[in-house]
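Students often ask what a holo structure prediction actually looks like on paper. The answer is less mysterious than it sounds. You provide the chain, you provide the ligand, and the output is a string of discrete structure tokens encoding the 3D arrangement of the protein together with acetoacetyl-coenzyme A.
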Amino acid sequence: MNFQLTEEHTLIQQAAREFAENALKPGVIERDRTQTFPVELTRQMGEMGFLGMMVSPNYNGGGMDTISYVLVMEELSKWDASASVMVSVQNSLVNWGLEKFANEEQKQKYLTKLATGEYVGAFCLSEPEAGSDATQQRTTAIDMGDHYLVNGTKNWITNGGRSDVYLVMAQTDVEKRHKGINCLIIEKGMEGFEIGPKEDKLGIRGSDTHSLNFNDVKVPKANRIGDDGFGFKFAMNTLNGGRIGIASQALGIASGSLERALEYARIRKSFGTEIINHQAIQFKLADMATEVEAARMLVLRAAAAKDAGQDYTEYAAMAKLYASQVAMKCASEAIQVYGGNGYVKEYHVERFLRDAKITEIYEGTSEIQRIVIARSIMKRAEQQLA
Ligand code: CAA
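The corresponding structure tokens follow.
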């Protein structure tokens, strides 16, 4: 077992750290207040290669491994989880799904532009009545021969207002339940496709979250990913990797909270000394550091399993479940270390707590992760007993 990062890993980690400090940190409080994320910053993230990290160079990507991706995600999330969710959705839910399951024509048309950041992508599974219970898709894609006619609504879609490419899950054959779902590539501007209002959120306020409406949208059959009825499997497989991305986002919020708390504890004085000299503060920092390291191990374990071609479903769910809990705890403890200053926006840590909460919800709530883990360990136990 080797716990050392390679030189390439350290270099990309350093580049992401500098980008987060120099490009994301300035303006992050204002972006949180105004719920905006400038196109220019997206362009810069594309230029840095962050929007197509794991895509093969054959499709203009960086050809990096999942370890590199989680290292970058952690660093970006230390300052701006709104930026990092965009990186996560683009890499894990859009690019990975296309590279793994789309045909060559679709890859040339879409993936080559997504990998450079010229295009932004969105993954559209959730609906008003299908969140955790994702098989219950109400959006329909009626087979009309050479095209599908798509009708319905999607909710809480990351990058919803600004994407070029939308991967939309829709029900073609209700009788077949989840085996009747297809994933269709819907382009910005297709007739009948409307972007709904932007959500006013608790956290990740810089991230662009919208509902989407489809009214008789004609989608060519050529835009279906995989065989007829493959859409639910597409979504589940893609989300397995997405959960590693969100776990690394949660890890970044947690380790960012620890870094900020350490910084502040070294300068803030009370009772005649810097507060870091008080054991009450030291114990908080010790607990935070231990839990951050445990979360990091789970995130790296999941990433390493994916890179090794092993089944990573259970590891990804464990990493997301645990890292999101640690993010909540560390952000809350960082506020406690900052005291009154922690409760105001200027010191960042209150945003960390608001941003942390979504990591327990999107890409499968903590309850869904427990279902995934429990099913996996029960299956293993059955196999061992058989
Ligand atoms: N990986 C691969 N395949 C999976 C899978 C997984 N993690 N989970 C389920 N499947 C497969 C099953 O093997 C099954 O296949 P077969 O029919 O061939 O046997 C099929 O999918 C249906 O699965 P189940 O019978 O287990 O269905 P279920 O309804 O009992 O449970 C669920 C499914 C695991 C609860 C699933 O609905 C789920 O993961 N829900 C959470 C949805 C989610 O994560 N939403 C996030 C929205 S996206 C988002 O947040 C993006 C963003 O913008 C940030």
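The chain has a mean pLDDT of 97.
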